[in-house]
């Protein structure tokens, strides 16, 4: 399953505040379209950001589950490079996400997954992604309709 862009181009409050002081607004893509985030801290954004990082770790661990153990280190290096190339995460965040995926991966590997349970896992990821998009959109400044 492909998740659109695998990111939301999230801008933390400190970045939004700095951009505002330079005269720029902070627009981000969401599943509901482009939304402008306020140049202030938004209640719940830290939890949202943490959930986004956890989602990426779960998604990576899910893909790793499909591979033989001999391919895992190369896969994790590629996943690290992929997240770095997106440009939305700091190197520290990417390292933490991949590290969490490595820790979650062995727990997934000991479970026997059927095609049905694997499909449920993928559906769960898709639902979490949709919810992350809705939560991000809820942080946005209401747009005036003209």
3D architecture notes:
The chain has 146 residues and is mostly helical. It contains five helices and two strands, in the order H-E-E-H-H-H-H. The protein has a domain of 94 residues. Strands 1-2 form a two-stranded antiparallel ribbon. Strand 1 and strand 2 form a beta hairpin. The chain is elongated and about 50 Å long. The model has no long low-confidence stretch (mean pLDDT 85).
The overall pLDDT average reads 85
**Percent in helix:** 55-70%
What is the number of helices? 5
Spans where pLDDT lies below 50 across 5 or more residues: none
- Structural class determined from secondary elements: mainly alpha
**Strands, count:** 2
The gross shape turns out to be elongated
Please describe the biggest sheet, giving its number of strands, its sense, and whether it closes into a barrel.
Answer: 2 strands, antiparallel
Q: What is the strand content?
A: 5-15%
Summary tags:
single chain; 146 residues; 5 helices; 60% helix
Q: What's the quick description here?
A:
The protein is built from five helices and two strands. The chain is mainly α and 146 residues long. β1 and β2 form a beta hairpin.
Strands, helices and their partners?
Layout: H1 13-21, E1 26-30, E2 33-37, H2 45-65, H3 72-86, H4 91-109, H5 115-138
Antiparallel strand pairs: 1-2
Helix pairs in contact: 2-4, 2-5, 3-4
């Amino acid at each position: 399953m492909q998740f659109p862009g695998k990111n939301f181009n999230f801008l933390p409050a400190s970045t939004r505040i700095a951009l505002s002081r330079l005269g720029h607004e902070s627009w981000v893509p969401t599943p509901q379209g482009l939304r402008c985030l306020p140049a202030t801290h938004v209640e719940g954004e830290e939890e949202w950001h943490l959930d986004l990082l956890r989602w990426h770790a779960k998604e990576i661990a899910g893909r790793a589950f499909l591979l033989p153990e001999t391919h895992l280190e190369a896969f994790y290096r590629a996943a690290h490079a992929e997240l770095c190339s997106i440009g939305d995460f700091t190197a520290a965040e990417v390292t933490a996400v991949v590290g969490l995926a490595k820790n979650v991966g062995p727990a997934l590997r000991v479970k026997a997954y059927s095609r049905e349970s694997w499909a449920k896992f993928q559906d769960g990821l898709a639902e979490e992604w949709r919810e992350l998009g809705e939560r991000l959109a809820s942080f946005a400044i209401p747009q005036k309709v003209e």
